[in-house]
Amino acid sequence: MLEVIVGPMFAGKTSELIRRVERDRYAKKRVSVFKPSLDTRYSATHVHTHNGLSYPAYIVPASKEGVEEIVEKTLEEGYETIGVDEAQFFPLDLVDALDTLAARGVRVIVAGLNLDFRGEPFETVKELLARADHITYLTAVCTVCGGEATRTQRLIDGRPAPYDSPRILVGGKEAYEARCRRHHEVPGRPTS
Ligand code: TMP
Ligand code: MG
User: Fold this and answer.
1) Where are the domains of the chain?
2) pLDDT tens-digit series, residues 9-51
3) 167 lines ligand 1 (CB under 6 A)
4) CATH architecture observed for domain 2-140
């Protein structure tokens, strides 16, 4: 089973991932959580939510080698359920790897951003969505109007980050806000 949890930042993706993994742990299943080492927010041995929840996790490199580690560890330890957080930071190799684990009977719960601050898809998550058996699209609250937010606004010194700003910038509330489509601003975005 391949379950994918997507949405903007502050939507509760990591909380939902932890909730599902924790339920299986209560059911005496062998469970584990993995996350890429790029995300150094708060601490390096746990996954963290924006509301202060945390859960122990294996930290693996955000590379092909890191993806291989997830597969090896899962098979070696015989995990029945695994969570993978921040999927957007892994290369496309993650997709085949998790698909294969799911085919072997592992319950794979993967969470990540479907869109970057520009409002463009993260390829790895896009491919995971295409292969998913089950998709959960969480939304957040727009910080401008209180409406349903499906986008993540990046702010640099309180101002919207331009389109050509680097794609990867690890951060939380100091650099990002959830926004609805109408209030999502990307100065310099090519108009189509
Ligand atoms: P979250 O989905 O758990 O809130 O974390 C998302 C992480 O991704 C956070 O560290 C900020 C980072 N990020 C980028 O690197 N680039 C982006 O375009 C966006 C929206 C987030
Ligand atoms: Mg998260």
Assistant:
1) 2-140
2) 999 999 999 999 999 999 999 999 999 997 555 556 888 889 8
3) yes
4) 3-Layer(aba) Sandwich (3.40)
